[in-house]
């Protein structure tokens, strides 16, 4: 019986991959991932659930996306959504946003400080606090994020 279930999930995924139906494919990946998780096949479940989450995110199916996230969370994952990347500045203070935008535009700490009436050392501190929030380690990465 269990082998039959798995064969049916795999057959359905093959059909959707071949003939389209992105929502149905994501939903089947979710169901298959749930089934795998309940059988303690964590690695396989993680793969299917992450694919389902990505599919629902692309489609904007927030209810299904939440269900996939809760399944991943049950596996001990902390899924990050692509939506978080839409606004990389949301976790920054207003002062950090100003400093980061000017740094991404190519200004030095001294130039930014002169423009904002702050010391270059304060500018450095703001960048030091902002980099981990943005997931960057260098100034050039600010430009790559599209902040310049």
From TrEMBL:
InterPro entries: Sig_transdc_resp-reg_C-effctor, Tscrpt_reg_LuxR_C, WH-like_DNA-bd_sf. The keyword Ion transport does not apply. Residues 85-148 form the HTH luxR-type domain. Gene3D superfamilies: Winged helix-like DNA-binding domain superfamily/Winged helix DNA-binding domain. The keyword DNA-binding applies. Keywords: DNA-binding, Transcription, Transcription regulation. PANTHER family: DNA-BINDING TRANSCRIPTIONAL ACTIVATOR DEVR_DOSR. This is Helix-turn-helix transcriptional regulator. It comes from Lentzea indica.
